[in-house]
């Protein structure tokens, strides 16, 4: 009877959301304790933006300067890096260290681990975007949108972009055979996408066959959406289609969210190759 009463009095397990929020706080603290990773994560896009801004200058058309194009492009690249690149490498390292295997053996719902990662990615992406936008306003003549519609568009493009990038980062984390190879395996496609998606080179100056490949992936559409938000209608003529195609931005990012979720559910591994 006493044993039954004790079992009945045992505290209930916290919800997956509550545990996920706690994991998010933990993941963020661990991230900011790694000073070299923090510096590289935030400094890399900023340094590239400053370098490209110093090397290339002048108006590219419609009163838009090439540095303003870079600001919008690097915001998209920062979102991709936070979700796809950094997260993919981080999860591969967790798998290699056995962290995933240990967490899978605890009573904690597995979804809480991913909620924590998503929170960490969201915080990093917000801070990185804020830093790039501040530099764009201070140095490169970017004007923050005055219309509520543009800020609303920024919000949904940002949320869809972060979600798609995060799901793809979770999925790609299963590709590297080890944590040592994760950086090379995951960074390469990320850099290639930046070259063909209008981050380093204006999208209108790329060969049509390259822009066709870029159009399959989310980065090109994130950058395109951010250009509408921060450059306005004056930059529409610089787009290959002559318009920002916001409907297609939403469609492609939404499709990648669905596709990324399917990839996560079908390919994610909690253990290293050859275990279990």
From TrEMBL:
Main localisation: membrane
InterPro entries: ABC2_TM (IPR013525), ABC2_TM_bact-type (IPR047817), ABC_2_transport (IPR000412), Nod_factor_ABC_transporter (IPR051784)
Pfam families noted in UniProt: ABC2_membrane
Transmembrane segments: 37-57, 69-93, 114-142, 148-170, 182-203, 249-268
GO cellular component: ATP-binding cassette (ABC) transporter complex
UniProt-recorded Gene Ontology molecular function terms: ABC-type transporter activity
Keyword Ligase carried by entry: no
Keywords in alphabetical order: Antibiotic resistance, Cell membrane, Membrane, Transmembrane, Transmembrane helix, Transport
Annotated protein name in UniProt: Transport permease protein
Membrane topology: Multi-pass membrane protein
UniProt organism field: Thermobispora bispora (strain ATCC 19993 / DSM 43833 / CBS 139.67 / JCM 10125 / KCTC 9307 / NBRC 14880 / R51)
Similarity remark: Belongs to the ABC-2 integral membrane protein family.
GO BP annotations listed: response to antibiotic
């Amino acid at each position: 009877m006493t044993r039954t009463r004790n079992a009945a009095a045992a505290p209930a397990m916290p919800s997956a959301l509550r545990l996920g929020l706690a994991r998010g706080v933990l993941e963020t603290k661990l991230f900011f304790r790694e000073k070299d990773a923090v510096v590289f994560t935030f400094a890399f896009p900023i340094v590239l933006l400053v370098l490209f801004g110093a090397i290339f200058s002048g108006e590219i058309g419609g009163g838009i300067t090439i540095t303003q194009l870079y600001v919008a492009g690097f915001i998209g690249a920062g979102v991709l890096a936070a979700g796809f690149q950094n997260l993919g490498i981080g999860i591969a390292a967790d798998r290699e260290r056995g962290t995933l295997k240990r967490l899978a053996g605890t009573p904690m719902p597995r979804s809480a681990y991913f909620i924590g990662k998503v929170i960490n990615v969201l915080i990093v992406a917000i801070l990185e975007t804020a830093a790039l936008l501040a530099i764009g306003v201070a140095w490169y003549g970017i004007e923050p949108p005055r219309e509520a519609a543009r800020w609303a568009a920024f919000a949904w493009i940002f949320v869809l972009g972060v979600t798609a990038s995060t799901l793809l980062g979770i999925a790609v984390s299963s590709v590297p055979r080890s944590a040592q190879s994760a950086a090379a395996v995951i960074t390469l496609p990320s850099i290639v996408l930046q070259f063909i998606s209008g981050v380093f080179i204006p999208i209108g100056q790329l060969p049509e066959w390259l822009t066709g490949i870029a159009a399959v992936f989310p980065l090109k559409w994130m950058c395109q959406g951010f250009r509408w938000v921060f450059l306005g209608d004056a930059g529409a003529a610089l787009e290959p289609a002559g318009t920002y195609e916001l409907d297609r931005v939403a469609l492609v990012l939404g499709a990648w969210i669905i596709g990324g979720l399917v990839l996560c559910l079908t390919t994610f591994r909690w253990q290293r190759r050859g275990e279990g």
